[in-house]
Every structure is written in C-alpha cells, then in structure tokens.
Amino acid sequence: MENTVLTEKKLLELQIVARDLRRKILNVIFHAGSGHPGGSLSATDILTALYFGGILRYDPKNPNDPKRDRFILSKGHASALMYCVLAKAGYFSEDKLWDYRKIGSELFLSGHPHPKTPGVEIASGSLGQGLSVAHGIALGARIDKLNYNVYVVLGDGEIQEGQIWEAAMSAAKFNSNNLIAIIDNNKVAQDNLTEDLKNIEPLIDKWEAFGWDTYRINGHNMEEIMNTLLTPMDSVKPRLIIADTIKGKGVSFMEGNKSWHGVAPSEDDLNKALTELE
After folding, report:
1. Cβ distance 112 to 104 under 8 Å?
2. Whose CA is closest to 173, among 140, 205, 203, 139?
3. How far apart are CA 115 and CA 194, in angstroms?
4. In which domain, by residue range, is 151 found?
5. Could you tell me if 46 and 243 are in contact, meaning their C-beta atoms sit under 8 angstroms apart?
6. 123/173 Cα distance (integer angstroms)
7. DSSP conformational letter for 74
8. Per the domain annotation, does 2 fall within a domain?
9. Residue 217 lies in a domain
10. How far apart are CA 242 and CA 19, in angstroms?
11. pLDDT at residue 190 is higher than 80
12. DSSP alpha helix (H) spans, the chain
C-alpha cells in the first residue's frame, strides 16, 4: 500500500475514474453482445479504490513480481469490470478490450477471468472457491517470507456456498491478517433477490463470530471505501468488508433489476445508459 493521502481532489479523481469505467464496461459488453453488466457496475467503485487509490501494490510492467499484492475476483462473471480495470491500470492496451468474449482472443479475455491474461491471478467464476484460494495464497506469503496482502471480492450470492465458511474458519484459525475479503453485497442474484434464496444476514454477526475483523460500509461512497481499506490491519485477524451496493449502479433502469444480471444492452439501452453516466 502506498502512503496515500486522502484529499477531496483524490476522491473526485477516483469518482471520475469509476464513472469512466462504468461507461467502458457497458460499451465492451454491448460490443461483445453478452456479459454481466449488473454485477460489474455494482463492484466498480470497490475495484477503482483498490487499483487507483494507492491500495494495491502492483506493477503492470512486471505482473509476476513476487512482492506484488494479489487480487482475486471471486465473482468472476464480472470479468468486463476486471478487464477494463486492468487495461486502465496499464496491463494491456484498451484496444484489446474489443476482443472481449471472442474466440481466439490474444489475451484470453473470456467471459470469466483466465490466468493467461496479464494481471489475473487465477481462473474464477465457479462461485464459492475464491476465498479458499485467496487464503492459500495468503499463507504462501508466510511460507515464502514475503510481505504482501491478498484482496478478494466475493458476491453476496456466492457466500451461500459452504466452502466460503470453511475458508473463513481456516483464515481465522491461521491468523491470516494479510487477507482482506470484500463482499459486493448488491442483494440481487442471477434470478432472484439474495434474501429470497438464502438470507445471508446478519453478516456482521456471522463474520465476527468466525473471528474476522469486520466492517460494513456504503460500497459506493468512495471516502468510506478508501478509509476502510486504509485502516491498519488487525495484528492477527483477517479482514472482512461488507460493501452494501446496488446492482447496476449508475444506470437507473438497471439498478436493483435482476433482468440485467447477464444480458448485453441494446444500442438504445446503451445510449440511454451512457447519457446517464455523462
């Protein structure tokens, strides 16, 4: 993590980056004719803070630097967001984004993250596995005597999976205080409200009971996101951040609407959305 000074100017810069990323995400999904706009837009502010707020240590010119922080997008269906962020961070040219979901993509810009893509740590999208992998990587830092953090973004739907809670117990057991999990709690799954599938609340109580240093924030308030990420880690506990978000954030007709989980906008929808995001 850099020595980040959080000023009003810095917050405004991050908000502008997030807005521009949302526009790029919608254009990329429209061009591909498929993708997941809802969950990409809900997590945009979180990834903006991580990559452009001075939180993650990374070098796009040396993506395999052993001292880098690791980031895992466990909710891999939000790959359009991941690729737009990586392109803006300098891992590859933004021109390559137009290969999204195309067979034969040079950088493997598939519908779910692929480890052959510069900046992607693991294949993800088989939901429920990301926290286990992130914890394994966090333990690897201890074994290799390296001082890096591991950040993982989870979907609120995927934490209905039992494997998440096995990983949560293990991370607390092994005092993995270099592991930071963030739940993109947009409350809408693929075809229903999350609470109507399995009610995951009370999240604070559950994660605290599992031994995590737990926070709850507005996942679209850049100041809250940054301040929480900049808070020094507990001496032994892993950190869990519940980021309350809105699926489809930034586009009025997509917000909170399960219909926009996995469908590309029409040209008319795209133009309306881009107008709202100006």
Report:
1. no
2. 139
3. 29
4. 8-276
5. yes
6. 26
7. S
8. no
9. yes
10. 22
11. no
12. 8-32, 37-42, 44-52, 79-89, 130-143, 162-173, 194-197, 203-209, 222-230, 267-276
Distances (CA, A) of 222 to 39, 241, 271: 18, 14, 26
Single out the residue of 32, 40, 36 nearest to residue 101, CA to CA: 32
Residue 19 CB-density burial (10 A; 0-12 exposed, 13-18 middle, 19+ buried): middle
Q: How many domains does the chain have?
A: 1
Other beta carbons within 10 angstroms of residue 142's beta carbon come to: 13
User: Which amino acid is located at 56 in the chain?
Assistant: L
Q: Which residues pair with 193 in a beta bridge?
A: 188
* Residue 243, beta-bridge partner list: 184, 217
Separation CA 124–CA 98 (nearest Å)? 21
Residue 22 sits in a domain whose CATH number is 3.40.50.970
pLDDT digits (tens, 9 = 90+) for 67-96: 999 999 999 999 999 999 999 999 999 999
pLDDT band at 2 (very low <50, low <70, confident <90, very high): low
pTM of the full structure:
0.95
Q: What separation in angstroms does the CA of 90 have from each of 59, 61, 83, 118, 244?
A: 9, 8, 11, 10, 29
Distance CA 239, CA 216 (A): 11
- With a CB cutoff of 8 Å and minimum separation 6, the contacts of 152 are 71, 72, 73, 74, 130, 131, 133, 134, 179, 180, 181, 182
Residue 126 lies in a domain: yes
- Would you say 182 and 148 are in contact if contact means Cβ atoms under 8 Å apart? no
How far from the centroid of its chain's Cα atoms is residue 117's Cα?
16
C-alpha span between 186 and 155 (Å, rounded): 8
